[in-house]
Design goal:
The chain is of the alpha/beta class. It has 2 domains: 1-40, no CATH class; 41-199, 3-Layer(aba) Sandwich (Rossmann fold), CATH 3.40.50.720. The protein contains 6 helices and 6 strands; from the N terminus they run E-H-E-H-E-H-E-H-E-H-H-E. Helix 2 packs parallel to helix 3 and helix 3 runs parallel beside helix 4. It starts with a strand and ends in a 10-residue tail after the last strand. GO terms for molecular function: oxidoreductase activity. InterPro entries: NAD(P)-bd_dom_sf, SDR_DHRS6-like, SDR_fam. Belongs to the short-chain dehydrogenases/reductases (SDR) family.
Length: 209
């Protein structure tokens, strides 16, 4: 398990336990990525969850520098990590990318986010063919109640979650374990490749609940 924050890694290790090991790594540091895989040994299942939220906002006023930052924060790290990992992946293992439902949600103000996440999702089919028998899939989460949302004031966040729950077939926003179960399903099923799996509770359906 890797991440930029040692404190968050320590907290995750305390929760997970078992034989989990951690390695502090910033996906923006190419040398750190190469060093990690050089000593990682053979990897059966790789999950790439580099996150970035830059590049949102109305298209007419979209800051192109922020859009570039969105690609720098999520798209390019996924590509760099994937290339560095390939020599170390088990030939019949799996790769799971984490994209976002914003890649196809068609919501105003998300064209930049759609470009970043849609670019990753678009790579899944050709990579599934090119890298076979290695399997490649992606999970596309919707709104998930994680600390990422702590940047939104509590009352505003609660109102947003409540409104989404009222119009989503699942009747709630997502939880981290929902995404984890989706990842596990894709990694464990050896007959599944070329899937971009929505994990949105049905929020992407045109009619809602």
């Amino acid at each position: 398990m890797t991440g930029r924050s040692q404190d968050r890694l320590d907290a995750a290790l305390a929760r997970i336990g078992g034989r989990t090991v951690d390695h502090r790594m910033d996906v923006a540091d190419w040398s750190a990525i190469e060093a990690f895989f050089a000593r990682s040994g053979t990897i059966d299942h790789l999950v790439i969850a580099a996150s970035g939220g830059a590049g949102s906002g109305p298209f007419a006023q979209l800051d192109l520098d922020q859009l570039a930052a969105g690609f720098d924060g999520k798209f390019w790290p996924h590509i760099r990590i994937l290339q560095a990992a390939l020599p170390h992946l088990c030939k019949d293992g799996s790769i799971t990318l984490i994209t976002s439902a914003s890649g196809h949600a068609a919501l105003p103000g998300t064209a930049g986010l759609a470009a970043v996440n849609g670019a990753l999702a678009a790579m899944v089919p050709p990579l599934a063919v090119e890298l076979a028998p290695l399997r490649i899939n992606a999970v596309s989460p919707g709104v998930i109640d994680t600390p990422w949302w702590d940047q939104v004031p509590a009352e505003q966040r609660e109102a947003l979650f409540h409104g989404l729950a009222a119009t989503t077939p699942a009747g709630r926003v997502g939880r981290p374990e929902d995404v984890a179960q989706a990842i596990h399903m894709l990694a464990a099923n050896t007959f599944v490749t070329d899937i971009v799996l929505d994990c949105t509770g049905g929020a992407n359906l045109p009619t809602g609940r």
